[in-house]
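Supplementary Data S3. Sequence and structure tokens for construct A.
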Amino acid sequence: MSRDIPDSSLKEPSTLVSAARALEAELLNLESITRAARKIPLTSEKNITRAAKELEEALTLPERMAAGLQALGSAMASMQARQQAALEPLAALAAQIQARHRRLSEHREAYAALGRAATEITARIQTTNGEPAAVSSDVEAQLARIVADAKALFDAARADDFPELAREADAVKQRASSLRRRLDPKS
């Protein structure tokens, strides 16, 4: 996905653009002088003098072009340094994204395990028709474990700044706690 060029960079050409334009102007000038000099008929002293003058001017251009090429090379090196400076933070961001994705995946796996445990215990409770007397201490222990695991996931997700996952874990904890209270014959 490309980004728009900021307006500030359009107001004044970069060093690279300026160097390339200057070099292009020198090259165009050389080509123009070459064409003009070659068209001068060498049939009179005046024309020979004019052609010699054009030749002399053309011979100064390679030196100026060399300076232009150096300026262009310097501008390209500067652009490469800017590119590197822009890319370096992206490497750190990529590592951060990868770490955050890995951590979120770990939390999601824990949440999926909670969901499986809640589904299993719900199925066991349904076989007893929800009668508190028929619910075993094993079911009670599993519900307690689900509540504890959901609370741990809630705390971890909140600490890792995953609020949506923290809310989902808290909802599982609330449902499991509510189910425990309904099934507890002492209440």
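Construct B, processed identically:
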Amino acid sequence: MNIYTRTGDRGNTGLFSGERVAKDDEKIEAYGSVDELNSILGALAAALPPDRRALIETLRGIQAELFVVGAWMAVTPGSPAAKQIEVFEDERVAALEKHIDALQESLPTLTRFILPGGHMTSAWAHIARSVCRRAERQAVRIFRNDHAAARDRVHETILSYLNRLSDYLFVLARYCNQIQGESDIEWR
């Protein structure tokens, strides 16, 4: 398989469900943000100390889930291609909540706003959080504009997942500072 197809040379691309759209289509923007988030999570996982294997594995699992999120964004609801994509269940949202709770157990109570930064791994988590929020905003837009998607339970779950993922990434940023011996940077 060639990496290049030349089919996008004139500014359009194909959705997973087969339709051709402009590369600046809102669906392409949305799953492009999910792809960007996935890449940032890869950088974060690579920057974590090797002894944090469980945390790295959690991030790898989230990366795999983001592939499914992107696939749902790249398909027209009700199309035959939609039947080929793994169903996105509420359990994925619940799993993120468990990860948040576990990380928060060791963190001091937050009493002030904090600035993104501290250790490099914390900075990557904050970057991931802000890209996740953008992906969430774009997902809201594409699902709202596609009336079939707006009524689809999978799309509702994806919106919840992206919302909870940004919460997880915020807590993870604080946790990364803690395990690296850095303090959160308080906004004054």
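The two ends are 54 Å apart (CA to CA). The chain is about 60% helix and 5% strand.
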